[in-house]
Amino acid sequence: xxxxxxxxxxxxxxxxxxxxxxxxxxxxxxxxxxxxxxxxxxxxxxxxxxxxxxxxxxxxxxxxxxxxxxxxxxxxxxxxxxxxxxxxxxxxxxxxxxxxxxxxxxxxxxxxxxxxxxxxxxxxxxxxxxxxxxxxxxxxxxxxxxxxxxxxxxxxxxxxxxxxxxxxxxxxxxxxxxxxxxxxxxxxxxxxxxxxxxxxxxxxxxxxxxxxxxxxxxxxxxxxxxxxxxxxxxxxxxxxxxxxxxxxxxxxxxxxxxxxxxxxxxxxxxxxxxxxxxxxxxxxxxxx
Length: 288
What we know:
- The protein is α/β, with parallel strands linked by helices.
- The protein has two domains: 6-128 and 210-287, 3-Layer(aba) Sandwich (Rossmann fold), CATH 3.40.50.1820; 135-204, no CATH class.
- The chain is built from ten helices and eight strands.
- It has helices at residues 43-49, 75-89, 99-110, 135-143, 147-158, 170-187, 195-198, 202-211, 238-250, 276-287; strands at 6-11, 17-24, 28-32, 54-58, 93-97, 116-120, 227-233, 254-259.
- The protein has an eight-stranded mixed sheet with strand order 1-2-4-3-5-6-7-8, sandwiched between helices.
- The two termini are 17 Å apart.
- The model has no long low-confidence stretch (mean pLDDT 94).
- Residues 29-281 form the AB hydrolase-1 domain.
- Keywords: Hydrolase.
C-alpha cells in the first residue's frame, strides 16, 4: 500500500485551476469526491487501491486546492474539469462518488475518455425521487450565518442521517448537530475540512442534481459505452437505490453490486464511518 502523496494541478477549459493529490502506481484512476467532501475524503480508499493504480484525488472546483466555481457554474463546468484531468494524466478509469458519480457519468456520456467507471450512488432525481425545492431555505440559512440550521436542512432533505433523525423535533436535531460540530473541530486530524467549512458547497452539488433531473428512466445515458460498475450500500436511502435501478436498466455495459450492511458513507475514510478496504475490493475486482 502506497501512502506517499504528491500534489499537482491542471487547467480546465474556462481557465480554472483544479488541484489534486496523486499516489500509487499502475493505470490511472481518478477518484471524484461527492457532496460535503474534498479529494482527501477518500484518501484511505486510494491507499487501498494504490498498489494496483495511480490514484488521482482532485478537489472539485470551489474546494481545497482548486479555483472558484465561477459565474457560469454548472454540471458542464464539472465535466470539463474531469476531462482536463483525464487528458493531462492519461487516466482511463474513474470512481465517481455521490454527486461526483453524476459528473463521471456525464463525462462518459459526452466523451470517450473513460474505459471503465465506478458509480457509487449517484443522487439522480428520478421522477421527483430526490427533490431540490429545499435549496432556497438552505441558502437563506447560509446567508444568515446559521450553519447549524443549514446542515440540519440539508441532512433532512437528503436523508443522510440515521432514520431516527427524521422523527426528531428540529430543535433537538440542531442541538445534536452543534455537539457534532464541536466534536469535529476538536478531534479532526485527517486534513479534511470541517462540515462548517464545507456547508456552503452543498448548494452547488444540489445544482448538479437539479440540472440532471429526469422525468423517468434516464434513457439519455444509454449511449454510454464505458463499462460501468454500479455500486451502492444496502442501508442507503431508497432514492439512491432507485437511481441505481434506473441506470441498471439503461446502461448497456453495466453490472450492479450492493454492499450489505453499508450506507452512503462507505467510501469515506474510517473517521467518517467509511469502509474503504471493502469498497476497494469491489473496485479492484471490476477494474483489473
